[in-house]
Amino acid sequence: MNDQIQPAPIHVPDAELDDLKDRLARTCWAPEPAGGDVDYGTSNARVRELVTYWKDRYDWRAWEARLNAYPHYETEIDGTRVHFGWIKSPEPDAIPLILCHGWPGSVFEYVNVIGPLSDPAAHGLDPNVAFDLVLPSLPGFGFSGPTPDTGWGVGRIAAAFVELMRRLGYSRYGTVGNDWGCGIAPELGRLAPDAVIGAHVTEAWFDAPDDPELIAGLSERDRGAMEAWQQFSTTAAYAMVHSEQPQSLAHAITDSPAGLVGWNVQCMDDQEVEAILTHASVHWLTNTAGSAIRIYAEADREQLPVAADVPLGVIQFPHDLPSVRAFVERQHNLVSWTEADRGSHYGAYDAPDLLIDDVRQFFAGLR
What we know:
Keywords: Aromatic hydrocarbons catabolism, Hydrolase. One of its GO terms (molecular function) is epoxide hydrolase activity. This is Pimeloyl-ACP methyl ester carboxylesterase. This protein has about 375 residues and is α/β, with parallel strands linked by helices. The protein has one domain: 3-Layer(aba) Sandwich (Rossmann fold), CATH 3.40.50. It is built from 17 helices and nine strands. A hairpin with a 2-residue loop joins β2 and β3.
């Protein structure tokens, strides 16, 4: 490929789907000691449940068709393939918006918000706030395929997306992010401050300041959020492995679909089975299970600053890792903060109406 943009509808060959089912049928089950199903990681019973459903009931073609209801394209940026959905609004004054997912998710995180954001009138919403949507698979993830080299952390991905939006002809646009997208979306604003009108995220990243007075004055809510982040940083075993030894793990989760879903489900076990298996299928069928996890190691190595001047909007879903608002206010240009009454880490999927409403309100004031 070169810098041209080419149509790239999604289609997984039948042979690859047959191979997946065959591998699932021949799963070699890990022995589990008595009591090993509690506090030792994903249990044997849970993996068996998911593998059985994946093998006997899951229909990849239905999900593939759902995504293919929208046009898809590909281009080459900085030596790697970038695959993206490009959904143009029928509204003439639509705001361009790039949506950034994370791990172990995929572009399917946003499948429930595409229609209402791009064509609000068709969904009973005010057509004066509408969006042209650009929905890329992060380099190294999903339909973009494995990256050919190292170094694809938040900064390099954001730079690639700045170039993508330039190629699409957008000189002013907004960004939306979840999970790793919460770092990528504001980073676009740092790299292209004249182009990015605002960043909307579900988690606002921050550096814990060395300020005893500020910490002592935290609200009860913020103190709980700080403690949650501290606990996450010391107990998220998957993040430690990804940061230190991603390639060591890559061999196992690239060779075994049962191993892949057993590993990935630790971060999305509150989701419905179909959603869990769709994200796992994307990673498996595109051979990106191993390359996607490298973003943790790359982010550790690049050490980008967290703060950015771009206007920031935050929606906090109750079943997600909370951000410390006092720290966010100090380190970002925070202009909107919403605490939702429902929704998980994948709020765009399981509470789409709340995300849609918040995104629309945020960007309506930033045209």
